[in-house]
Amino acid sequence: MKRNLAVTGAAAAAGVSAVYSLWLWVSSYLGDNFHNDFTFYYAAARLGLAHGWSHLYDLRLQQEQLDAIGSHITIAQLARYVSPPPLAWLVTPLTLLPYQVAYWLWSALLVGALMLAWHLAAPGSGRSRVIFLVAAIGWLPIIYGLQLGQPALFVAAGVAACYALLKRGRDVEAGAVLGVLVLKPQLALLVPVVLLVSGRWRAFASSVVVLAVITAASVAVLGPSGVTDYVDRLNFATTIAENQAQTLAGWIHNLQAARIVQGLVAAWTVGLAYGLRRRGPAVVLAVALIGGLAASPYVHYDDLAMLGLACLLFLRAARGRWVIAYAIALFIAAEGFPVWQAGPVLAGELLALALFSIPALKHHHGYTEQDDAEREHDPGFEGDRQHLAVDGQAQPVDGRARET
Predict the structure, then answer these.
(1) What is the DSSP letter of 312?
(2) Contact partners, residue 22, CB within 8 Å, separation at least 6
(3) Are 12 and 133 in contact, with CB atoms under 8 Å apart?
(4) Contact at 8 Å (CB) between 150 and 193?
(5) What's the CA gap between 4 and 2, in Å, rounded?
(6) 328: Cβ–Cβ under 8 A, 6 or more apart, which residues?
(7) What CA–CA distances, in Å, run from 153 to 22, 169, 379?
(8) How many CB atoms lie under 10 A from the CB of residue 392?
(9) Which one, of 105, 80, 82, lies nearest residue 93 by Cα?
(10) 119 burial class (0-12, 13-18, 19+ CB within 10 angstroms)?
(11) Which residue in 7, 119, 283, 314 has a CA-CA distance of 20 to 30 Å to 320?
């Protein structure tokens, strides 16, 4: 009875939040069709088609395309295209459509990616799984990313697909789907590395090959001058205070010292992944995502979609009220970012790594890849169980244009 009441209450709260968030998204779009990051992707794709991809990071030509589509946006520190070339390539077919149609089609693809990530990663069964989806739509980092048109959900879907394929023993395909990281590398940069240290050699090799091919293609089409422009834009982006505020550099006011600490956090994360390698892919990938965000030199609010995915993966792999409570705490910390900024989220990420580091946690009997209800429906469960049993146990939306 109590459980049913809890599920009903959670569903009602998630539903109200989702409706309100969708209203924020639509009202923001109606207020200014172009005040989002997709505008820059669309303009960049047009630029590449009109002037060649080697000029993709030419700020004068970016401004020319922004003017051509009637955006009324002026290139500035936080308003320019600095994403990798593959993101502009992905948007290229949409340039055949009017901007407004292209925006909503792109949004539909992002919603599809959200649903795919939920389908592959959400724990539980029945109504409880649906609550996770509704709660995601109502979560501010998700709806903010949808309003901006950010590709984070594509990356999340790719990592979720990697997890699902690893469960089924399809390691080569699991690595290949990580090619989606080229759209926004900093969101899951440690995932291929933890595949290596956790013994998933084929998945690691596959991811390296796919990422190398796409990177080589990007370098080839940009040419020497285009690569130089891109590196210059990235270097400039790291000096902007707004781009540091949501990273450890916001706490450590010496950039060089911050980079050292971020490197140490990354190494810590990889070491944890190695230590937890027998716990199954859900735990390893969750650690990679949480530690990767904490170590990243470049994070924006909408990037916390990856933190949501990490929580789903860990909830699949661990039982206990403390796990649920901690996931809820991270959820609230991210939801309240407009009030208390990035501090609680960063602290939560680092504390999560610390908890993973406790030897007792590594041998906690709460670890398992699925609950009993999922076992009979999930053909990959027994494969996960084998990994887990190795050590003797079952194991208000901000519409401000910004740098993209």
Answers:
(1) H
(2) 137, 143
(3) no
(4) no
(5) 5
(6) none
(7) 16, 24, 26
(8) 8
(9) 105
(10) middle
(11) 119
- List, in order, residues 6 or more apart from 254 with CB less than 8 Å away: none
d(CA 295, CA 304): 13
Q: How many CB atoms lie within 10 A of CB 101?
A: 11
- What's at 207, amino acid-wise? S
∠ CA(331), CA(308), CA(126), 5° rounding? 95
Cα 267 from chain centre: 20
Q: Are 81 and 95 in contact (CB under 8 A)?
A: no
Evaluate whether 183 touches 154 at the Cβ level (below 8 Å).
yes
Quote the tokens at residue 35.
Answer: 């005040």
Q: What is the DSSP letter of 139?
A: S
Question: pTM surpassing 0.85?
Answer: yes
pLDDT in tens, 260-295: 999 999 999 999 999 999 889 999 999 999 999 999
pLDDT tens, position by position, 305-354: 999 999 999 998 877 788 888 988 999 999 988 888 889 999 999 999 99
Residues in the chain: 404
Q: Which two structure tokens, joined as six digits, stand for 79? A: 């308003």
* Cβ pair 74, 80 in contact under 8 A: no
